[in-house]
Structures are given as C-alpha cells and as structure tokens.
Amino acid sequence: MVALRLPANSRIKQGQTYKASAHAKRVRKFHIYRWNPDDGANPRTDTYELDLDACGPMVLDALIKIKNEVDSTLTFRRSCREGICGSCAMSIDGVNTLACLKPIGDVRGAVRITPLPHMAVVKDLVPDLSQAFAQYRSIEPWLKADTPPPPNGERLQSREERAQIDGLWECILCFCCTAGCPSYWWNGDRFLGPAILLQAHRWIVESRDEATGERLEALHDPFKLYRCHTIMNCTNTCPKGLNPAKAIGAIKRLIVERQV
Amino acid sequence: MALSIAHRATGIALSVGTLLMTWWLVAAAASDHAFAMVQGFLGSGLGVFLLLGWAAAALLLHFFLGIRHLAWDAGWGFGILAQQEPVGMGSGSRIYRITGWGVIGVTVLATLTVWIAGLISWR
Amino acid sequence: MTDKPDRPAVTPHVAVLASPLKRARGLGSARSGSGAWWAERLTSVALVPLTLWFIASIISLEGTSRAGVIAWLQAPVPLVLMLCMIVATFWHMEQGLRVVIDDYLRNDVMRMTMLLLNRGVCAIAGLLCVVSVLRLGL
Lengths: 260, 123, 138
Prior knowledge:
The structure holds 3 protein chains of 3 kinds. By secondary structure, chain A is of the alpha/beta class. In chain A, 29% of the residues lie in helices and 15% in strands. Chain A folds into 2 domains: 118 residues, Beta-grasp domain (Ubiquitin-like (UB roll)); 115 residues, Alpha-helical ferredoxin (Fumarate Reductase Iron-sulfur Protein, Chain B, domain 2), CATH 1.10.1060.10. Chain A contains 9 helices and 8 strands. In chain A, helix 6 runs antiparallel to helix 7 and helix 6 crosses helix 9. The radius of gyration of chain A is 21 Å and the shape is elongated. Chain C is elongated. Classes of the chains: A alpha/beta, B mainly alpha, C mainly alpha.
C-alpha cells in the first residue's frame, strides 16, 4: 500500500569524488544528485570539492564552476543569475530555493544539492515542469474583460487597485513552493499547488479583470483548491519572499463570502 | 512543518481516543458494574497514561494548533502579502515562528495545569 | 552500410499520451468543497469553548461515583452542553478523517470504502454517546 523505500532503480548510489587542487585553502564539499536517463544506471551522488577562494559567492557560481572546470556533464537550468528568471530552482541544504540567490556561506558544512522534491527528473538537477505549467495554463492567466477597452487602449487602474496585486505579480514561477508542498507531493495531479493558486489570486484581485466569478468557480473544487491545509511550507521557502499561503487563504475566504 | 504533521497526528490519535469516551459513557448508562470496570481501567497504569498523554496532552496540542489554524483561516498570522525579504533558511516569517513557539509554550503550560488539577481532584 | 538509428529493440509502450493540459484540467471544477470547508471551521469554533468546558467538567467529576455522574447530567445545562460537545466532536472527527483519507488514498475503491466506514463509525459512536447521555440525564 505505502512504499517506504524507493524502487530499486531509483535508489541513490554513491558516485565519484572530485578533489580540489592541493594548494586550495578554503575547500567546501558539494554533494550533488546526478542521474542520466540514457545510461540506465541508478541515480548517484557525486562529490565535488571546490576552492571557495576561486569561486563566486552563490551556489549557482559553484555549479557553473563545476560545469566549466571539473565535470561538464553536470546539467542544470540557469539563465539570469539574479533571481528573476526562476530557472535555477533546486533543493539546497534541504530547502527549495534559487541557486543564484543562495550564498554558499549560508550553508554550514557540505552543501547538498538535489532537484526539486517529488518532481520527475529530466536529467541531474532538471525537473519536469510540464504538469506545473499546464496547471498554470488551466487557470487562464490573462485579462478577461467583456467591457471593450477605452479608445486609447489603456484600461485605467487606481493606485489602490494596483496595490492589490503587490505580492502576487512578483512570482517568477520557479515552483520552489509547489515542490515543497506535501499536498502537492501526494496529489499533484489534481491539486494546483501554491504557485498556481497565487497566480490565480493575482487574477482574481486584478481590478481590470471581469471574470472573477468564473475564476472562483474554477477553483471551487475539493482537490484543485482545498487540498491546501495551511501546512505553510510554501511561504517559508519562497526565495522571493512571497506569501502563497496568505493568498490561498484569501481565495478560500472569497469563495465562502459569496455564499454565507 | 513539524507542528503541521503533529496537528494531523494528534487529530488521528484523538479520533481513536473518542472510543474511550464512548466506552465510558455507554458503561455509565449501562450498569454500576460496567461503570466500575471502566473507572477501574482509567485508574490503572495504562489508563492513567492514556488520560494524561492522550486525553490531556494530545487534546491540548491539537486544540491550540487548531486555534492557530482558525486564525490563519480568518486571515491573521500570515505576515504581509507584499514582497518582503526572504527569511533565509526557509524557517518562516517572524509571526509564523512566534505563533508556532507560542502554541508549544501554551500547550505545555495547559497540559501541566490539567495534570496538576487532575491529580489534586483525584486525591 | 547505412547507420542503424539509435532505437531500443522494443518500442517502449506509453500508456498516457494525453497532453499535460488535458491532465491538469481533469474533469473540470466540481464547483463544491467550500461547504465542507466552512462546516469544518464551524465545528472547530464550537469545540473551542465546549472542549474547555469538557476538560474542566471531567476534572471536577474525578472520583465521583456513577450516581454522582447521573446527578450531574440531570441538570439541564451539563446535559445540553454534553450533547453539543458530543455532536460537535464526532462531526469534527468525521470531517478531519475525511480530509486525511482524501489526501492519502488514491485507489478509488479503497478510498470510497474508508470514507463510508468513517461516516458509519462516527455516526454510530456518536449515537451511542448521545443515547447514553440522554439515558443518564433524562
């Protein structure tokens, strides 16, 4: 009924160790999850010893250094290196965060890096986000308005109305929160997860959008919304400091407000 | 996170514990003999452990965590919605940690109070 | 000689080829769920004062004889509060366990069975308590 061990072909084996050069003074170990879909082997943990004096401050700097100088087969997503694209989301030292925003100095001891938890792995640290993005598409994240726009095309919005989406528009869809939610682990095929629900709330409180009722009805489902049990891992892990749990609470209150 | 699963675990444990309450009430309604039997069990070592640990500690932890949940449902205790500095190691916003430790503290105090009151009443 | 393309000897069978969007949309929104959510909050709120009262009453009743318990329940206030507490407790218990079952059981038959058992046991145990209390009190 419940599997307490990973299936045999998923168990993580001990991999290779890559030592630092002899005259490195500040050496740190990086234990990184590796898996290649093409070679039929089990996943493994490779250990890379890096000289921190020759490396940038962030974990992403270490990953890029490893790929450039030590092992070019290490595979991971990255782009902006400044915490705005959301590509380098992974689990570092047990916490889902962006590698480009996580200082190596914040981790004590060896740095353990694994892909986002409970997501299918494409290769090494690259998760398969197609389900998550499909769920994003399913909430219809665009402006829906029956009123035609004014002649100059600009739909007006007051400062107060614009402030409503603060804390919501900044989401970069890195899915750190979603991959950290136990409800999403167990029911990710039907539960939308915190990232998508935060975005759903972004459109619900958008003053220029006129399909609020429709949006609330689309979420009003025992699985899509109500698998959230306020476990709070999402807000605790968001690398951008956003608050999905609060947004989800607001959605639940709006739905009840309609009928009580 | 640990408090969250503790809320679920105490909830499940308490659900099983209602069987004890059911037994007590049914026995009380049935006969003097049945009632004496259940009171005897509650006075035994296992019975006392169940009452102190289960009925008191688990109940009070679930109770105070539940109040924290009700506060969240009302919209209070999440911290702010606008973008703020992420609090590093994924440990949560200040209000989350304060309410979390607050619940633990209040539960310990309440449990001790109930235990002491119960022992006094027993004498 | 032409190069043989890289292909496994047997084409792997893929059972699910539906698009991610199809799977994400599923059967669409059930348009329900807030009723259960709200009811759970109501039983929780009701149980805050009722549980405190219950704990205090149990402590004060310690060591009382059966006759003492009966006498206590014959007063209308303890009788009614006890009934409210029992109903709220078993209802709250059913709601909470229902959420746990929904979370962890994926097999539909197993899930439905456990959900029905949940309702059944809570209803029967609740009725046993209510009937016992009424017998003692009335």
